[in-house]
What does this fold into?
Amino acid sequence: MKKESQADTAASGPAPDQKKIITLLKRFSTLIGLFLISAVLALTSEHFLSAENFLNILLQNANIAILAIGMTMVIILGEIDLSVGGIEALGCVVAAWMMVYGGLGIIPSIVIALIAGTLCGMISGFFVAYFRFHSFVSTLAMMGISRGLALIYTHGASIYGLPDSFRFIGQGSIGPIAVPVIIAAVVLLLGHLFLTQFRMGNHIYAVGGNIEAARLAGINVGRVKMIVLSISGFCGALAGVIMASRLNSGQGTIGEADLLDTIAAVIIGGTSLMGGVGTIPGTILGVLIIGVIRNGLNLLGVSSFWQMVAIGVIIICAVLVDEIRRRFQEKER
It folds into this structure.
C-alpha cells in the first residue's frame, strides 16, 4: 500500500514545495539572470561595479526602454512592430527640422514629432486592423517609409544648430539621475498602469490570448490593434526626440540597431511571442540585461560585431525558453 501511495504521488506531479520553487524560479528567472550576468562581469572587469557605470547603463538604454514599452504591448497583442527604429529616426529629424528650419519653439517641435510618430503607428494599425495585413508586412513597410522620410528631410546629412536649452532633455540631469532615465521611468509607470489598471489593458491581453474569444466577448479588436500600434509609434518618436537632444542634431540614420535590442529585451523579459503574456516590469529587466551585457562587453573590449552575434544568440535562447515553458504549461493542463 505504501508503494502504491508513493507511485500515485509521483504520478500526480511535483510535490507542493517543488511546485512553489518552480513557480518562484519562473517568476524571478529574469532577475536571477540579471544578477548572474552582473556577477560574472563584476569578476571580469574592475570598472563594472561602480555607481557611475550603473548610471551610464541606464542612460545608454533609456531610449531602448521607451521603445520596448511600446513593443511589449504590441507583442502581448500577438503582433510585431518592425518600424520602431525608422519612427525613432523620423521623430529625431522632425523635431530638429522644425526647430532649425521651421522656426518653431522646442515644445511645438516636440509635439509635432510625437504626432508624426503616432500617425505612423496609427497607419500601420489601420492596415492591420481593417485590411487584415499581417503586422510584419505593415510595419516593415512603415519602417521603410519612416526611415526614407527621415533621410529625405535631412538629404542624408545631419541637422545642426538646435537651441541650447533643448539639450537638457537628452543631456541634463536632476541630481545624479539623467533626464532621459527619468522620462523612461515615467513612460514605464504609465505603461504599467495602462496595462494593469485600465480596461484597454485587459482588452490587449484578451486579444493576444485568444482573438476569437475576444471578438465574441464584444471587444473591438481592430480598435485595440490601432491604439496599441499608435502607442508604439508614439514611443518610437519620443525615443527619437531624446536622441536628437543627446546628439544635439537630427540624424536620419539613428535607431538602425535599436530594433534588435528592443525585441530582445521584450522577449528576455518574459513576453511571449504567441501573445497574451507579458509585463512592463519584466521588459525593463530585459532592457537591463541587454544593457549590462553590452556595457560589460564594451569594458572587456569585445567588438560591436560580436555583440550583435551575442544579442542574436540571446534572442534564440529566450524564444526557446518561452517555447519550453509553453509546452510545459500545456502538459500541466
The first helix runs from residue 2 to 12. Residues 50-332 form a domain with the ABC transporter involved in vitamin B12 uptake, BtuC fold (CATH 1.10.3470). DSSP finds 15 helices and two strands in the chain.
